[in-house]
Specification:
single chain, about 625 residues, alpha+beta, five-stranded mixed beta sheet, four-stranded antiparallel beta sheet
Length: about 625
């Protein structure tokens, strides 16, 4: 048992020794691997890339030529790498003691900067192709012939003999069918013959039609211009015969406007002067018996600045146009009221003859003829006011005609709807208005207030009142905007005032005329107050009379009468009060120019009118 115990003890010691030896071998192998990895890292740090090696060689060459600066570079040896090991005999490993020398010397960093030398080097030319910019010019496209007359610049070049400047034929690009010059410039295309189908397509195209219409309008203006371009202010004298004639007879008929297709046999229902362009006149026409295929509603725009007999623009509508006006705040809009009760708008820019906007026929809008249109307000706040013959007044926004913004029923004292025939607003007023009726009454109304509608009734006519016109001439101190005149089929024109002058009128809300003008013997269809003269107005009747009244001079007979051979339906003053447009029932517009003695007021005209009104009111009392 003792022997067995000793043997076990020896075996145990031997086993412990083997384990210790094995553990030492593992520890040595682990350290050897660490040293090998560390040596590889050192070698990687010492290695130089090709560019650094080349730079180092160049630096060495410069140092040899110019001499070293600072610390001279010397090759150094690398100490033994810990990673270099050798495996000895007997299964053990031992570190190598042989030094490892690098073939490529390491150059230390030079602390001092080298001097930089600058030199001039030639740059390589770079040709950048210029960006092609297309340019267009208005020119006549013709064939290029060799016998064209040369210009001044070309004449000098043609004097050079042909032997010294031979002409080279210009190449032609067949794909694009364009002539390309020597410098690369592209010349205009050569005109080619079009087929019949291509010609027909061009003729029926919309662009071609608009071009022909626009260019023909311009050519008509040029041909109709009668200005004497040879007039010399230093030598020539203007003829004063026409001015003397105007001063003597006061008015001169300048021209008449008509069109064989659009105006013949049509009644002029309304006229309006442009507030934006002087000399532009708008007229609407309707035909009682329609026999042609042309539209029932026709509106023509005439330009009086040029001596031509064709309209500039033609507008059509499915229904007869009973009233028309310009928009003071939209220079391209033309507004019309139709017999069917629709409000329509044409836009000159659209190039169309048909309206671009129209209202709907509904109970909230008009369903009867519209004889009255007025645009009131300012640039930022304005409305279109329309009144139909069933007594309905509507306020519209021109940007949206789907339905009116406001509507008002005009009822008389019975109460019944008033059959309105005309409308006017006093100067600079957007609330009060005056309307005439087919019953022979005139009413003063208001759009807003405690009682919107008709508030005052004016009695004095014995037939349908065809037109009313408010005083338009402004004065800085005296105010006559309360005056207005009316015309009727009872052969009279009457002067009224919006101001109620006595207690009886205030209590009964009924007024009588200040003065009645009874020099006519036929229906008076229109009356218009002068926009510049405070005491002047004009009227037209069915007998062809054009009467000028100046109440400062005479209230019994007009101061001037012009007779025409046809019944007259409408009259309108131009904004400057010097030109008068008169329309008849045959579709002809007569343009009159008034002299200064007639249309230009004297400084005392305003005071004289104040005195005249006072005398007329006293005579009525």
């Amino acid at each position: 048992e003792v022997k067995m115990a000793d043997k076990e003890q020896k075996d145990r010691k031997a086993e412990i020794e083997r384990r210790k030896k094995r553990l030492d071998e593992l520890r040595q192998a682990k350290e050897a691997r660490k040293k090998e990895l560390k040596g590889k890292e050192e070698l990687d740090k010492l290695q130089v890339d090709p560019l650094a090696k080349a730079r180092q060689n160049v630096d060495e060459l410069v140092d040899k030529i110019l001499g070293p600066k600072g610390t001279s570079p010397t090759p150094t040896s690398v100490s033994p790498t810990p990673g270099s090991v050798s495996i000895g005999t007997g299964g053990g490993r031992s570190e190598s003691t042989e030094p490892i020398t690098m073939e490529t010397p390491i150059v230390p960093i030079i602390t001092k900067k080298r001097e930089m030398k600058l030199s001039i080097d030639s740059l390589l030319p770079i040709n950048i192709k210029p960006k092609t910019i297309e340019q267009y010019e208005k020119c006549t496209q013709t064939d290029i012939h060799g016998n064209e007359i040369p210009s001044d610049n070309e004449s000098d070049e043609n004097e050079i003999p042909s032997s010294e400047s031979p002409v080279k034929p210009e190449p032609k690009d067949k794909d694009n069918e364009e002539i390309v010059g020597e410098s690369g410039d592209t010349l205009p295309l050569v005109a080619r013959n079009l087929s019949d189908e291509e010609k027909q397509d061009i003729l029926i195209s919309e662009d071609f039609s608009m071009f022909i219409e626009r260019s023909s309008r311009v050519m008509e203006r040029v041909l109709a211009d009668t200005t004497d371009i040879l007039f010399d202010l230093a030598t020539d004298k203007e003829e004063e015969g026409e001015d003397l004639l105007l001063a003597s007879i006061n008015v001169v008929r300048k021209k008449q406007l008509s069109d064989s297709r659009w105006t013949k046999g049509r009644i002029i229902s309304s006229m309006a002067w442009s507030p934006h362009h002087p000399g532009i006149l708008l007229a609407s026409y309707y035909q009682q018996e329609t026999t042609s295929m042309d539209p029932d509603g026709v509106v023509l725009m005439w330009d009086l600045k040029f001596d031509k007999d064709t309209p500039d623009y033609i507008f059509n509508c499915h229904s007869p146009i009973m009233s028309v006006t310009f928009s003071k705040f939209h220079p391209y809009y033309v507004i019309g009221g139709t017999y069917s009760g629709q409000v329509v708008i044409w836009d000159i820019r659209s190039g169309r003859r048909t309206p671009v906007q129209r209202s709907q026929l509904s109970s909230s809008a008009h369903t009867h003829p519209i004889y009255c249109l007025e645009l009131i307000g300012s640039q930022n706040a304005h409305n279109l006011i329309s009144v139909s013959t069933n007594g309905k007044l509507c306020s519209w926004n021109l940007d949206n005609l789907s339905q009116p913004q406001e509507s008002l029923e005009l009822l008389n004292r019975h109460p019944r709807p008033v059959a309105v025939s005309s409308l006017c607003f006093p100067l600079n007023d957007v609330n009060k208005f005056v309307v005439s009726s087919e019953e022979g009454l005139v009413f003063q109304g208001q759009r807003h207030g405690k009682k919107p509608g008709l508030v005052v009734q004016y009695e004095g006519h014995y037939g349908t009142v065809t037109s009313v016109s408010c005083h338009q001439a402004a004065h800085p101190q005296l105010d006559f905007s309360h005056l207005f005149v009316s015309s009727s089929i009872d052969w009279t024109v009457k002067l009224w005032s919006l101001k109620l002058i006595n207690e009886q009128q205030i209590t009964s809300k009924t007024a009588t005329p200040i003065c009645s003008f009874e020099a006519n013997s036929d229906y008076i269809y229109d009356v218009q107050w002068s926009p510049t003269h405070p005491a002047l107005f004009v009227s037209v009747d069915g007998a062809g009379r054009l009467d000028f009244w100046n109440i400062n001079q005479d209230t019994e007979v007009p101061i001037l009468t012009e007779m025409l051979d046809t019944a007259l339906s409408r009259v309108r003053w131009s904004p400057n009060g010097q030109v008068l447009a008169v329309g008849d029932i045959e579709g002809v517009i007569y343009i009159y120019e008034a002299g200064e003695a007639l249309c230009v007021p004297q400084p005392n005209e305003w005071n004289r009118l104040q005195t005249t009104l006072t005398e007329l009111q006293q005579s009525n009392v």
